[in-house]
Specification:
Layout (H helix, E strand, L loop, with lengths): L3 H39 L8 H5 L3 H14 L18 H15 L3
Protein backbone atom coordinates (compact mmCIF):
# COMPACT_ATOMS: atom_id res chain seq x y z
CA UNK A 1 0.00 0.00 0.00
CA UNK A 2 1.46 3.35 -1.03
CA UNK A 3 1.58 6.04 1.61
CA UNK A 4 1.25 9.80 1.22
CA UNK A 5 4.99 10.11 1.84
CA UNK A 6 5.66 7.86 -1.17
CA UNK A 7 3.50 10.10 -3.33
CA UNK A 8 5.28 13.22 -2.13
CA UNK A 9 8.67 11.60 -2.77
CA UNK A 10 7.66 10.63 -6.32
CA UNK A 11 6.42 14.17 -6.94
CA UNK A 12 9.68 15.57 -5.58
CA UNK A 13 11.68 13.31 -7.90
CA UNK A 14 9.63 14.50 -10.88
CA UNK A 15 10.25 18.13 -9.95
CA UNK A 16 13.99 17.49 -9.62
CA UNK A 17 14.07 15.70 -12.97
CA UNK A 18 12.13 18.51 -14.67
CA UNK A 19 14.50 21.10 -13.17
CA UNK A 20 17.53 19.15 -14.40
CA UNK A 21 16.12 18.92 -17.93
CA UNK A 22 15.32 22.65 -17.89
CA UNK A 23 18.85 23.53 -16.72
CA UNK A 24 20.45 21.34 -19.38
CA UNK A 25 18.32 22.94 -22.11
CA UNK A 26 19.15 26.42 -20.82
CA UNK A 27 22.88 25.65 -21.07
CA UNK A 28 22.75 24.59 -24.73
CA UNK A 29 23.14 28.12 -26.20
CA UNK A 30 25.98 28.88 -23.79
CA UNK A 31 27.82 25.66 -24.64
CA UNK A 32 27.39 26.43 -28.35
CA UNK A 33 28.82 29.93 -27.92
CA UNK A 34 31.78 28.80 -25.80
CA UNK A 35 32.53 25.92 -28.19
CA UNK A 36 32.58 28.33 -31.13
CA UNK A 37 34.75 30.82 -29.22
CA UNK A 38 37.28 28.17 -28.18
CA UNK A 39 37.40 26.80 -31.73
CA UNK A 40 38.30 30.26 -33.03
CA UNK A 41 40.91 30.86 -30.34
CA UNK A 42 42.78 27.55 -30.28
CA UNK A 43 42.19 26.46 -33.88
CA UNK A 44 40.83 23.06 -32.89
CA UNK A 45 37.22 22.13 -33.66
CA UNK A 46 35.22 21.77 -30.47
CA UNK A 47 31.70 20.53 -31.07
CA UNK A 48 29.01 21.61 -28.58
CA UNK A 49 27.82 18.03 -28.11
CA UNK A 50 31.38 17.00 -27.21
CA UNK A 51 32.24 20.12 -25.21
CA UNK A 52 32.94 18.56 -21.82
CA UNK A 53 34.78 15.55 -23.23
CA UNK A 54 36.95 17.85 -25.36
CA UNK A 55 38.20 19.45 -22.13
CA UNK A 56 38.93 16.13 -20.38
CA UNK A 57 42.57 15.86 -21.40
CA UNK A 58 43.42 19.48 -20.50
CA UNK A 59 44.98 20.20 -23.91
CA UNK A 60 42.41 22.81 -24.98
CA UNK A 61 42.70 24.56 -21.61
CA UNK A 62 46.50 24.76 -21.91
CA UNK A 63 46.20 26.02 -25.49
CA UNK A 64 43.77 28.68 -24.30
CA UNK A 65 46.23 29.83 -21.62
CA UNK A 66 48.98 30.01 -24.27
CA UNK A 67 46.77 32.16 -26.53
CA UNK A 68 46.02 34.52 -23.67
CA UNK A 69 49.71 34.69 -22.68
CA UNK A 70 50.69 35.45 -26.30
CA UNK A 71 48.20 38.31 -26.44
CA UNK A 72 49.66 39.77 -23.25
CA UNK A 73 53.06 40.21 -24.94
CA UNK A 74 54.90 39.60 -21.70
CA UNK A 75 58.23 37.89 -22.49
CA UNK A 76 58.89 37.20 -18.81
CA UNK A 77 56.01 34.75 -18.53
CA UNK A 78 56.91 31.09 -18.97
CA UNK A 79 54.87 29.36 -21.66
CA UNK A 80 52.45 26.74 -20.31
CA UNK A 81 53.70 23.28 -21.21
CA UNK A 82 51.39 20.36 -21.86
CA UNK A 83 51.24 16.89 -23.35
CA UNK A 84 49.19 17.12 -26.56
CA UNK A 85 48.76 13.33 -26.70
CA UNK A 86 47.36 12.92 -23.20
CA UNK A 87 44.75 10.20 -22.82
CA UNK A 88 41.49 11.34 -21.25
CA UNK A 89 41.48 10.49 -17.54
CA UNK A 90 45.15 9.54 -17.54
CA UNK A 91 48.10 10.91 -15.63
CA UNK A 92 49.10 13.34 -18.40
CA UNK A 93 45.53 14.67 -18.61
CA UNK A 94 45.57 15.50 -14.90
CA UNK A 95 49.01 17.05 -15.35
CA UNK A 96 47.67 19.18 -18.22
CA UNK A 97 44.76 20.34 -16.08
CA UNK A 98 47.18 21.31 -13.31
CA UNK A 99 49.37 23.21 -15.78
CA UNK A 100 46.38 25.11 -17.16
CA UNK A 101 45.27 25.98 -13.65
CA UNK A 102 48.73 27.24 -12.70
CA UNK A 103 48.96 29.14 -15.98
CA UNK A 104 45.63 30.79 -15.36
CA UNK A 105 46.66 31.83 -11.88
CA UNK A 106 49.67 33.81 -13.18
CA UNK A 107 47.77 35.70 -15.88
CA UNK A 108 47.60 39.40 -15.24
Amino acid sequence: MASAADGEEAGSDQVKEAATVYQERALIPLVEDVSEWLTRLVGKTILPEEFMSSLDDGVVLCQLIQVIQAKQNNPLKEKVKYNSKAAKGGWHARDNAAHSSCGASILE
